[in-house]
Amino acid sequence: MLIRNFGMLAVSIALLAAMGCDKPGAAEQQKENAAIQQDLQAQNSAAQQSAQAQADMRDKIAAAQVDFDKTRNDYSRDRQLDLKEIDERISKLEERTQAATAAKRGQLEQALANIRVQRSAFASDVRAIGGVAAGDWDQFKSKVDDEYNALRDHLDKVA
Predict the structure, then answer these.
(1) Residue 124: how many other CB atoms lie within 10 Å
(2) Residue 96: CB partners within 8 Å, gap ≥ 6?
(3) What DSSP string describes 12-79?
(4) CB-hemisphere CA count at 13 Å for 106?
């Protein structure tokens, strides 16, 4: 019976030891599960914030592109009107050249030849406005503005 009691006592001690080990193990497992859950929530939150930031950035880029396209189209329209005005002034100068004396006609024809070269460069750039990228815009616009101002000034001096 002593062996039997001793066996029961050993089994009871083993069970108590196992139960004592399981409780801290279970608590540690719960802590680990909670930490894993918090980590997953933090990752999901970060992913949602990142996706929202990317969507916001795409919206801002799209709005900036729309604004740039409008600016470029407005500028193109304005420069086309300027080109039309330049052509009208050249036409009037050609008429004046035809009516001028021989000496004056030579000077006007030389001036017209130079003006036509300038007009050709300006017209070429006006046609290219629609294809200019945003990164090149400021430099290109400055070039076209300078060409227009020089052409207009040249016409003013000749007229």
Answers:
(1) 11
(2) 108
(3) HHHHHHHHHHHHHHHHHHHHHHHHHHHHHHHHHHHHHHHHHHHHHHHHHHHHHHHHHHHHHHHHHHHH
(4) 2
- State the chain's maximal CA–CA distance in angstroms: 147
Token duo for residue 22:
């399981």
pTM score, whole prediction: 0.69
Residue entry with tokens 């207009």: 152
Phi/psi of residue 6, nearest 5 degrees: -60, -40
Calpha distance 129→69 (Å, rounded): 11
Inter-residue contact 132 to 140 (CB < 8 Å):
yes
Convert the pLDDT of each residue in 11-52 to its tens digit.
556 555 555 545 668 888 898 899 899 988 999 999 999 999
Pair of tokens at residue 32: 């680990």
